[in-house]
Design goal:
With about 475 residues, this protein is mostly helical. It has three domains: about 10-165, MgtE N-terminal fold (Alpha Horseshoe), CATH 1.25.60.10; about 175-295, CBS-domain; about 310-480, Orthogonal Bundle (Tetracycline Repressor, domain 2). Helix content is about 65%, strand content about 5%. Strands 1-2-3 form a three-stranded mixed sheet. The protein has a two-stranded antiparallel sheet with strand order 4-5. β2 (about 200-205) and β3 form a beta hairpin. α15 (about 250-260) packs across α16 and α20 (about 385-415) packs antiparallel against α21 (about 415-445). The longest helix has about 30 residues, at about 385-415. Residues about 1-10 have low confidence and may be disordered.
C-alpha cells in the first residue's frame, strides 16, 4: 500500500485548506458547546475557543508572509479579519506589503493608528514608500518623524517617483566596496554581516564619492586569489545600470534579456543611490499583467473578491454603462432590418455567427498589439505596416472560414446566394475587426491613455453592431 502523497512545504493551496478546515472545525465545535447545558458553560466555551485559536495561531506562525497574504485574500471578510487578528504584530508590515491593494484597504480599516505606526516602522524606507499611499496622513507623519535623517531622505526619494519608474522599485539595502582593497579584505568585511541583502549576486565598486566604477560578482570574489585587488578582477565595462527616472518596463525587459539578478541605480552624476532586484521586477511584471487583464475587461482597479456589493458595483458600473449603450445600438441595427428577418428567418440564426467570429478575431488582434506595446516592440510609425499585415490575415481568414460557413449555409438552407452573403459578411467583419484591433490601442497610446483599457469591450461592441449591419445589409440588397 502506497503512502498518500504529502504536500510540499510551500504548497499554499494546502495551507489555505488547512486554515479553512481549522476555521470550519472551530465553528462546528463552538456551536455544539454553545448549545450544551452544562455547569460553568461560559468557562468551557472560552477554553474551547482559546484552544482552537491557539491552533490557528501556531499554523500562521509557521507560514511565510506571502502565504498568509494569499490566505487572507481567499477568505471572506469576517474570517479574514479574524485570522488577521491572530497574526503576530511584528509581521503586520510584511503581510500588508504582500496582499493586494483591495484587501490591504480592508485590513488597514480595522487597525488602530498605533498598530499602523508599529507596522510601518518595521519596514525599510523603500517598502514603506509602497505602503504609504494607503496609510492615514497622520500615521505617515509620525513614522517620518521617527526615522533618522538618512531614512527620511530615502523615504522622500522613494515617494517622489511615479509608480512606473525605476525609482519607485529600487531599494537602498546594498553592499559597496572600494577598488583599492584586496579580495581578502572584502571577504572579511562580508563576514561582519549577519546576512547579506536579499538577491545579492554582486557588489558595487565605488570611489569615495560613491561614483560607480564597476561590479564585483560573488562568483569572481570566491574563485579569485584573495591577494588580488578589487580593481584587478572587477567588471568595469559594460555595467548595466539604471537611473531612477528610467521606465520600469525598460528595466524589466533588460532583466529578462540579460538574466540579471540585481543592478545598480545611479543618479545624474553616476553616484550609486540604490539597486533594483529581480524580485522587484517580478512584482512589477505581475502587477502590470493583472492591471492589463482588468483593463481589457473595463475594470478600473483590482477588486477584492469578497468586497461589499456596493464596492463591486462602483468598480464595474462605468463599462457596463458603455456596454448598455453599445448593446442598445446593436439592437437598433437589428431593428432596421426587421422586415428582412421576417422574410428570411435564416438570417436570425446566422447573424450571431458573423458577429461572434468578428469579436474573437478582433480580441486576438488587440491582445497582440497591446502586448507588443507593453514590450516596447511597437512604435507609432509602425501603425500602417501592422494594419496592412492584420488586414491580410483577416482577408485570408475571412475567405477561408467565411467560405466554409457559406457552404454550410448553402447546405442547410439550400440557398446559394445566402452562402455567398455569409462569406462576404464574414470577410468584411473580420477586416473591420482587424482595423479596430490595431487602431484602438495604438490611438489610445498616442493620446496618452492606457492602450489596454476597455479594448475587449470596444472591439466586441464594434464587431457586434458592424457585423449585424454588414450581414443584414448585404442580405437585404442581394437576397430580398
Amino acid at each position: 500500500m502506497t503512502e498518500p502523497e504529502r504536500p510540499y512545504p510551500d504548497d499554499v493551496q494546502h495551507h489555505l485548506r488547512e486554515v479553512q478546515e481549522l476555521l470550519a472545525r472551530q465553528r462546528v465545535v463552538e456551536d455544539l458547546v454553545h448549545r450544551q447545558d452544562m455547569p460553568r458553560h461560559e468557562l468551557v466555551e472560552t477554553l474551547v475557543h482559546k484552544q482552537h485559536e491557539a491552533g490557528l495561531r501556531t499554523k500562521l506562525d509557521g507560514l511565510h508572509p506571502a502565504d498568509i497574504a494569499y490566505i487572507l485574500e481567499a477568505l471572506p471578510l469576517e474570517e479574514r479579519l479574524y485570522v488577521w487578528n491572530l497574526v503576530k504584530a511584528e509581521r503586520d508590515g510584511e503581510i500588508l506589503l504582500e496582499v493586494s491593494d483591495a484587501v490591504r484597504e480592508s485590513l488597514i480599516e480595522t487597525m488602530a493608528p498605533e498598530e499602523l505606526k508599529a507596522a510601518a516602522e518595521s519596514l525599510d524606507a523603500d517598502e514603506l514608500a509602497d505602503l504609504a499611499p494607503d496609510l492615514p496622513p497622520e500615521v505617515i507623519e509620525d513614522v517620518f518623524q521617527s526615522l533618522d535623517s538618512e531614512g527620511r531622505e530615502q523615504l522622500r526619494a522613494a515617494m517622489s517617483y511615479p509608480e512606473d519608474a525605476v525609482g519607485a522599485l529600487m531599494d537602498f539595502d546594498m553592499v559597496t566596496v572600494r577598488d583599492d582593497v584586496t579580495l581578502e579584505v572584502v571577504l572579511r568585511y562580508l563576514r561582519r554581516f549577519d546576512e547579506l541583502p536579499d538577491h545579492t549576486d554582486k557588489l558595487f565598486v565605488v570611489d569615495r564619492e560613491d561614483h560607480l566604477e564597476g561590479i564585483l560578482t560573488l562568483e569572481t570574489l570566491l574563485i579569485s586569489d584573495p591577494e588580488r585587488t578589487v580593481a584587478e578582477v572587477m567588471q568595469s565595462e559594460p555595467v548595466i545600470s539604471f537611473t531612477p527616472e528610467d521606465e520600469a518596463d525598460d528595466a524589466a525587459q533588460a532583466f529578462e534579456r540579460y538574466d540579471l539578478v540585481s543592478a545598480p541605480v545611479i543618479d545624474s552624476e553616476k553616484r550609486v543611490i540604490g539597486r533594483i532586484t529581480v524580485a522587484d521586477v517580478v512584482d512589477f511584471i505581475r502587477e502590470e499583467s493583472e492591471a492589463e487583464i482588468l483593463s481589457q475587461a473595463g475594470l478600473r482597479e483590482e477588486e477584492d473578491i469578497f468586497a461589499s456589493v456596493w464596492d463591486s458595483v462602483k468598480n464595474r458600473w462605468a463599462w457596463l454603462a458603455i456596454n448598455l449603450v453599445t448593446a442598445f445600438i446593436a439592437s437598433r441595427v437589428i431593428g432596421l432590418f426587421e422586415d428582412s428577418i421576417e422574410k428570411l428567418v435564416a438570417l436570425a440564426a446566422l447573424m450571431p455567427i458573423v458577429a461572434g467570429i468578428g469579436g474573437n478575431s478582433g480580441n486576438q488582434t488587440v491582445t497582440m498589439i497591446v502586448r507588443a506595446i507593453a514590450m516596447g516592440q511597437v512604435e507609432q510609425s509602425a501603425m500602417t505596416r501592422l494594419l496592412k499585415k492584420e488586414l491580410g490575415v483577416a482577408l485570408i481568414n475571412g475567405l477561408v472560414w467565411g467560405g466554409l460557413l457559406g457552404v454550410l449555409a448553402w447546405w442547410l438552407y439550400g440557398h446559394v446566394e445566402l452562402g455567398l452573403v455569409m462569406t462576404a459578411a464574414m470577410t468584411l467583419n473580420l477586416l473591420l475587426a482587424a482595423c479596430a484591433g490595431v487602431l484602438i490601442p495604438m490611438l489610445r497610446e498616442r493620446l496618452g491613455a492606457d492602450p489596454a483599457l476597455g479594448g475587449s469591450v470596444m472591439i466586441t461592441a464594434l464587431t457586434d453592431s458592424g457585423g449585424f449591419f454588414i450581414f443584414l445589409g448585404l442580405a437585404t440588397l442581394f437576397l430580398l
